[in-house]
Design brief:
Blueprint: H1 3-23, H2 30-37, H3 41-48, H4 51-71, H5 79-96, H6 98-105, H7 115-133, H8 141-161, H9 169-183, H10 195-208, H11 218-231
Length: 233
């Protein structure tokens, strides 16, 4: 795509995003967006195909905004505290951008999710791998990521659906702390001596290691990781 088309596409996305946030997804149509952007409907079709293509591009745009904040989040050195901060940032984004959030996580087509959603999931998984390597997790990082996403998106969608005056921040905080307490060891990594957390820390170290540097062959590494997952149960 040449520079002119790229600029036009970005302009149209910003116009569509404004309509989405002010009026909701039902107000986003190829006709309304083209008129607001000052282009012909045919030009919009060339850029996005149809309304579904435009909404898919808007979802990616929303994830780009969300991920920009996540990438800029500095780590405190305390993985458990960073999990709490990550939860709060996620919920805050949803409440500040409800129309974006519904487009990102409230899809009406099961199994369909923008590619940027996988990037967000991978970012969480990488962080949880670091937490596991530090001995802070009770469960494998992949399971922790699925549980974390299910809980935080559920809470955020629930709060978005409630009238503003009924949104009790304590609900999010209680769910956050209950979930994180169930996923983490509770003590500092240096003092926790549970077999499960040590097994998960070694598993995370294997995940991070370059396969060429491991003294084990791939089948042996796979067997070791299976044993470690058994020990972590």
């Amino acid at each position: 795509m040449d520079d002119a088309k790229t600029r036009t596409r970005q302009q149209v996305l910003e116009v569509a995003a404004g309509i989405l946030e002010r009026e909701g997804a039902q107000a986003v149509s190829t006709r309304s967006v083209a008129a607001a952007a000052g282009i012909r409907a045919a030009s919009l079709y060339q850029l996005f195909g149809d309304k579904d293509g435009l909404l898919a591009a808007l979802a990616i745009h929303a994830f780009d905004i969300y991920l920009a904040g996540k990438h800029n989040l500095a780590h405190t050195g305390d993985p458990v505290e960073d999990m709490r901060r990550g939860w709060d940032i996620h919920v805050d984004f949803g409440l500040r951008h409800p129309a974006f959030y519904l487009l990102m996580y409230g899809t009406d087509r099961p199994g369909r999710r923008p590619p940027a959603a996988e990037e967000a999931k991978d970012l969480l998984l990488k962080f949880l791998d670091r937490a596991a390597a530090a001995g802070c997790l009770r469960v494998p990082s992949a399971l922790a990521a699925r549980l974390f996403l299910a809980a935080v998106t559920g809470i955020t969608l629930s709060l978005i659906g409630a009238p503003a005056e009924d949104r009790d921040p304590e609900i999010s905080a209680r769910m956050r702390d209950t979930l994180i307490d169930s996923l983490t060891t509770g003590g500092s990594p240096a003092t926790d001596s549970s077999l499960a957390s040590r097994a998960l820390a070694l598993d995370a170290a294997l995940t991070a290691a370059d396969g060429a540097t491991l003294p084990l062959r791939p089948p042996e590494t796979a067997l070791l990781r299976d044993w470690l997952h058994q020990l972590a149960r």
